[in-house]
């Protein structure tokens, strides 16, 4: 994917005050402190780059002890990954902000994986290719020149090529751009691919299977000529809250209705929610300690010599959080909006701010609950609403929105929104089994978008377990003499190895996260239930290189015992990794997950067979999962939601009077 330059609005005037929370995001001042500490090391040179800088989070028990006044403030640490652009050598470092020094530095074995791809590496690709005579000739064979070609550098994967061992490699596909405003995705140069060593700055292998006619039709979705006559029948929709929003914000901490939580952000993971709790009978009851996207993979299904390697890990290889958009009122977010900025650092270690990187607002969501009773004449209806916390990131051709929803009845949802531009190819009969033709001569390879949501659960405390619940059809028997009975099976997932599971829509499979030490007023364990997205898991063969590298995507659910070092579903160093890291390594320990401090990892996302309607820009597609309280409360927690004021009392009327537009 062609990764754009980041707008580095450099932060100024920052405070030296330490953040109140040990989990607070790194500040601009702290990024500058980190840069000063790291750059003072004897091993730091003019060609050293900051590949990743983020908060090294303290152990949960330290954080909880500090919060409860039972322990000291945890040490403030940052994790820093460095790459020397002259040698390719990289290190993984821990910096103590309290001590202002590097407390750990470990060399990274490139054979086991490498730090994420740098923007500097991407920016150099066009020049490297243009200096190679074979590349220039291949362009000439297709009737074009380097000045009219966009080189798209892409992560290389791992295929055991001898010349790539220990080297930093990207693979390059090319697209023609006819003029500066022309979207090049409409004009792929099919049959051509370069493998590039970004440290030695040379093409190591050129694949040219022969020229294919370059599609000529414009894909300029922002051109009025392509858009057609504007639709004029739509009337304005105005969303207002005359009394202001219902939420309150104190720094990164948010309160809304019965919910409390903290908002965080990371260059790799993007939007993070922390310390989600629900106020019930005057007590704050924890539900989730930390929630984020921990990895995603976009595997393509075209096995051609040009594209067989095409799969991307947008977190581990690209750090998709750094490409987060600055959101705009009325375009990305509508209503009474509260924005949050994201502070990161660039590859020189200099802090910058993504303005309005996170958006928060309330939405009406139809009927919360309703009943018209034939016996009492009661007719009650309440409006539902939800709090939306969202961000959007653009990784090359695709745009991804991540929308967390909190509801008045205790429900939590994460919805991924997928839009942007298809990654295209030339459409040929040979490639037809693996591509859709979306415009004349223009193909779009079949692919998947598989996200790993890391859910560090804390349902009523840290003693949690997971029960797998399936609907069970019962055969005829003495107890079921009409054959219409059914029940459910409940299976406790006891260890990490047995807790790697697949969803099963035909039995409504769900996973109940229960507290093993606390019960509700009915004597049942308090809990939440994960209703998964049960779409296909990874389609690659189980013995493939991709399946080893993206093992998280082979199951819908993994459950691990909490370890603060286990943050990423495919491991810490994904770029050119041979695989085996992340969840396979975590669960190889086969630790107990019954009555323990546990983390759930849910794989979800669509398998995409592109349509002509997805071109030239894709209407938003959706993928989501839901967490609902199941025995967490003793009754409907939304009974105390008042009637809608705008309905002038008509939401509580006798049944004979009927409803008055209070439901959808």
How would you sum up this structure, described in words?
The chain is mainly beta. It has 7 helices and 33 strands. The chain has helices at residues 28-39, 60-67, 119-130, 133-141, 224-227, 545-549, 583-587; strands spanning 9-10, 48-56, 77-84, 90-96, 101-107, 149-155, 169-176, 192-197, 202-208, 248-250, 253-256, 259-266, 270-280, 283-299, 311-313, 338-345, 351-372, 379-395, 398-407, 412-420, 425-426, 435-439, 442-445, 447-448, 450-457, 464-473, 486-493, 510-519, 525-531, 557-561, 598-604, 607-608, 618-629. The strands form 6 sheets. Strands 1, 16, 17, 18, 19, 20, 26, 27, 28, 29 and 33 form an 11-stranded antiparallel beta sheet that branches. Strands 10, 11, 12, 13, 14, 15, 25, 30 and 31 form a 9-stranded antiparallel beta sheet that branches. A hairpin with a 2-residue loop joins strand 11 and strand 12. The chain is globular and about 85 Å long. It starts with 8 loop residues before the first strand and ends in a 35-residue tail after the last strand.
């Amino acid at each position: 994917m062609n990764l754009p330059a980041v707008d580095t609005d450099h932060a100024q005037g920052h405070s030296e005050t330490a953040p109140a929370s040990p989990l607070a995001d790194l500040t601009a001042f702290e990024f500058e402190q980190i840069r000063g500490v790291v750059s003072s090391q004897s091993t730091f040179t003019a060609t050293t780059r900051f590949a990743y800088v983020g908060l090294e989070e303290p152990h949960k028990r330290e954080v909880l002890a500090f919060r409860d006044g039972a322990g000291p403030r945890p040490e403030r640490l940052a994790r820093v990954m460095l790459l020397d652009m002259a040698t390719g050598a990289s290190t993984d470092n821990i910096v103590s902000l309290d001590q202002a020094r590097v407390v750990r530095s470990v060399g990274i074995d490139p054979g086991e994986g490498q730090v994420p791809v740098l923007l500097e590496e991407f920016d150099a690709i066009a020049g490297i290719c243009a200096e190679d005579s074979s590349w220039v000739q291949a362009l000439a064979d297709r009737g074009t020149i380097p000045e009219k070609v966009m080189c798209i550098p892409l992560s290389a994967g791992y295929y055991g090529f001898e010349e790539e061992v220990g080297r930093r490699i990207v693979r390059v596909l090319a697209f023609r751009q006819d003029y500066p405003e022309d979207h090049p995705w409409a004009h792929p140069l099919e049959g051509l691919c370069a493998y590039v060593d970004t440290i030695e700055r040379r093409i190591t292998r050129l694949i040219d299977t022969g020229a294919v006619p370059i599609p000529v039709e414009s894909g300029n979705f922002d051109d009025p000529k392509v858009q057609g006559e504007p639709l004029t029948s739509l009337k304005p929709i105005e969303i207002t809250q005359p009394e202001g929003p219902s939420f309150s914000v104190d720094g990164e901490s948010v309160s809304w209705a019965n919910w409390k939580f903290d908002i965080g952000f990371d260059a790799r993971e993007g939007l993070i929610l922390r310390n989600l709790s629900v106020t019930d009978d005057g007590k704050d009851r924890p539900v989730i300690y930390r929630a984020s996207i921990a990895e995603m993979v976009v595997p393509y299904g075209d096995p051609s010599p040009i594209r067989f390697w095409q799969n991307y890990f947008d977190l581990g290889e690209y750090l998709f959080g750094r490409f987060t958009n600055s959101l705009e009122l009325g375009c990305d977010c509508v209503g009474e909006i509260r924005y949050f900025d994201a502070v990161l650092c660039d590859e020189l270690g200099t802090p910058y701010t993504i303005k309005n990187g996170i958006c928060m607002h309330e939405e009406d969501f139809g009927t919360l609950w309703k009943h018209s009773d034939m016996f009492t004449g009661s007719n009650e209806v309440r409006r539902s609403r939800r709090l939306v916390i969202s961000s959007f990131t653009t990784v090359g051709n695709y745009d991804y929105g991540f929308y967390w929803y909190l509801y008045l009845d205790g429900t939590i949802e994460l919805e991924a929104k997928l839009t942007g531009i298809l990654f295209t190819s030339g459409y040929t009969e040979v490639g037809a089994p693996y591509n859709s033709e979306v415009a004349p001569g223009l193909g779009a390879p079949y692919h998947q978008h598989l996200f790993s949501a890391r859910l560090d659960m804390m349902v009523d405390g840290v003693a949690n377990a997971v029960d797998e619940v399936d609907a069970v059809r019962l055969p005829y028997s003495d107890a079921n003499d009409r054959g219409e009975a059914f029940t459910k099976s409940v299976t406790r997932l006891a260890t990490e190895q047995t807790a790697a599971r697949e969803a099963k829509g035909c039995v409504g499979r769900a996973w109940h996260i229960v507290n093993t030490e606390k019960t509700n007023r009915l004597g049942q364990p308090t809990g939440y239930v994960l209703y998964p997205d049960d779409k296909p898991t990874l389609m690659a063969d189980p013995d493939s290189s991709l399946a080893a590298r993206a093992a998280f995507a082979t199951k819908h659910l993994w459950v691990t015992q909490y370890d603060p070092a286990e943050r990423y579903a495919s491991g810490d160093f994904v770029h050119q990794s041979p695989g085996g890291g992340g969840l396979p390594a975590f669960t190889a320990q086969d630790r107990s997950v019954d009555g323990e401090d546990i983390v759930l990892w849910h794989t979800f996302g669509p398998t995409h067979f592109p349509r002509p309607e997805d071109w030239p820009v894709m209407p938003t597609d959706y993928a989501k999962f839901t967490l609902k309280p199941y025995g967490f409360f003793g009754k409907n927690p939304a009974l105390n939601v008042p009637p809608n004021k705008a309905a002038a009392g008509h939401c509580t009327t006798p049944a004979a009077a009927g409803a008055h537009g209070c439901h959808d």
